């Protein structure tokens, strides 16, 4: 499984250091390799650098991509789509601009399969993969602890206990069968060792199809399903005032036009 993962793993190089060399800003991995090109997923904050998310779409954003495979030269990728809510970005590499040898090698690169994050079992062993603190191709082990709301409560995220660091951002969260069940995106400060990942089921069903549809024109807006209402959580006080039998549930406070 680890050998397959490293066939898809890449580092995003940004922010030139004092020695004139680009630093590892985060991780990416291949989700598609076909006639349209090589496509990688990572976090939006990995490719955005400083500034507002909207700045990414004012001009073409190019990033350097260094694959874990040593026989692949550093490639230039273009950000072709992003989702600010899920903190995801889609990068395209045009292999037609590479040498014949490099084109052949790029064509042999493997895409990691996006699995079913809803099938995870509490306590299941997982492997977050990436470049923590700039250390290349570093696997760690974690345990699945459930799913819950995150990022403005508009997405459910996969929670896991394990050690991840800056540089793991954008990397895959793997089951032991090699399937991707999430993209590592956030963590609580040490010593908590609690981290969060955007679930693969949401990426596969909702986000990636929309990012691919807008390929070629960076597009921030990814549409999510909505009830069209705003809710207020029920409290013990409201339960008593309204004479309700439980404090579980919510009150509709606004309806969209």
Protein described:
With 257 residues, the chain is of the alpha+beta class. The protein is 15% helix and 40% strand. The protein has helices at 2-6, 44-48, 100-107, 200-213, 236-242; strands at residues 9-16, 22-34, 37-43, 62-67, 75-83, 88-93, 125-130, 138-139, 142-150, 155-162, 172-174, 180-187, 194-199, 229-233, 250-255. A six-stranded antiparallel barrel has the order 1-2-3-6-5-4. The termini are far apart. 36% of the residues are buried.
How do you describe this structure in short?
This protein is α+β, with helices and mostly antiparallel strands and 257 residues long.
Overall average pLDDT: 86
Distance between the termini: 50 Å
Helix content: 10-25%
**Tell me about the biggest sheet?**
6 strands, antiparallel, barrel
Beta-strand content? 35-45%
Tertiary shape? globular
Alpha-beta classification: alpha+beta
Number of strands: 15
Radius of gyration: 20 Å
Sequence stretches where pLDDT stays below 50 over 5 or more residues: none
Order of helices and strands: HEEEHEEEHEEEEEEEHEHE
Descriptive keywords:
alpha+beta, 5 helices, about 260 residues, 6-stranded antiparallel β-barrel, 6-stranded antiparallel beta barrel
Give the helix/strand layout.
Layout: H1 2-6, E1 9-16, E2 22-34, E3 37-43, H2 44-48, E4 62-67, E5 75-83, E6 88-93, H3 100-107, E7 125-130, E8 138-139, E9 142-150, E10 155-162, E11 172-174, E12 180-187, E13 194-199, H4 200-213, E14 229-233, H5 236-242, E15 250-255
Antiparallel strand pairs: 1-2, 1-4, 2-3, 3-6, 4-5, 5-6, 7-8, 7-9, 7-11, 9-10, 10-13, 11-12, 12-13, 14-15
């Amino acid at each position: 499984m680890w050998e397959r993962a490293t066939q898809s793993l890449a580092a995003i190089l940004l922010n030139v250091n004092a020695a004139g060399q680009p630093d590892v800003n985060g991780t990416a991995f291949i989700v598609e390799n076909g006639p349209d090109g090589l496509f990688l997923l990572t976090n939006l904050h990995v490719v955005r650098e400083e500034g507002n998310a909207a700045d990414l779409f004012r001009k073409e954003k190019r990033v350097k991509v260094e694959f874990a495979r040593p026989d692949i030269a550093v490639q230039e990728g273009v950000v072709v789509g992003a989702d600010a809510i899920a903190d995801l970005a889609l990068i395209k590499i045009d292999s037609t601009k590479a040498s014949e040898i490099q084109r052949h090698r790029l064509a042999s690169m493997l895409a990691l399969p996006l699995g079913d994050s809803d099938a995870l079992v509490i306590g299941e062993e997982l492997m977050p993969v990436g470049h923590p603190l700039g250390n290349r191709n570093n696997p760690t082990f974690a345990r699945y602890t459930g799913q819950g709301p995150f990022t403005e409560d508009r997405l459910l995220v996969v929670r896991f206990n394990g050690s991840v660091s800056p540089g793991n951002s954008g990397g895959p969260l793997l089951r032991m069968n090699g399937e991707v069940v999430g993209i590592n995106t956030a963590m609580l400060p040490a010593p908590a060792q609690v981290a969060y990942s955007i679930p693969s089921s949401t990426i596969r069903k909702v986000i990636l199809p929309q990012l691919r549809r807008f390929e070629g024109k960076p597009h921030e807006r990814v549409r999510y399903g909505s009830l069209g209402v705003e809710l207020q959580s029920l409290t013990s006080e409201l339960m008593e005032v309204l004479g309700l039998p439980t404090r579980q549930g919510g009150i509709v406070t606004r309806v969209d036009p």
